[in-house]
Specification:
This protein is mostly helical. The termini are far apart.
Length: about 130
């Protein structure tokens, strides 16, 4: 039941998140309206102190909400709220007694949050190729 309580608390986070995101989105939309796109948009947002402050606050709240450790912050590329949510749910599932297939699925999902996620997919595919090679 603890797992379900954590999911219910996610609704509160969503309301908080939407307020911060709307302000972040307003700032981004402002620059887009000034014809900033792609690399130019990223560069101007990197220099915008208010945007960076809001972004930092949002990441700190998400880190606290999903209990992300410093090692996990280094290991995983957590760029979006969804990335934090995925890792948080994986961590919750790891605390539950999972069968072998579900453990494997959770591990594969977590590898997708890593910068070099393709190597794990390739490693898994190679194992399957070896297993079913005739």
């Amino acid at each position: 039941m603890k797992f379900m309580k954590n999911i219910d608390r996610g609704g509160k986070l969503l309301k908080m998140r939407n307020k911060k995101l709307s302000k972040l989105q307003e700032i981004e939309d402002h620059y887009v309206s000034l014809d900033y796109i792609g690399a130019r948009l990223r560069k101007v947002l990197t220099k915008d102190k208010e945007y960076q402050k809001l972004l930092k606050e949002r990441k700190q709240k998400l880190t606290k909400q999903f209990k992300i450790t410093s090692a996990e912050k280094k290991k995983y590329v957590l760029l979006t709220d969804t990335d934090f949510e995925i890792l948080g749910k994986c961590k919750q599932l790891e605390k539950v007694k999972l069968n072998k297939d579900d453990k494997f699925l959770v591990e594969i999902i977590k590898t997708q949050l890593e910068a070099d996620w393709r190597k794990y997919l390739l490693k898994t595919l190679n194992k399957l190729m070896k297993k079913y090679k005739k």
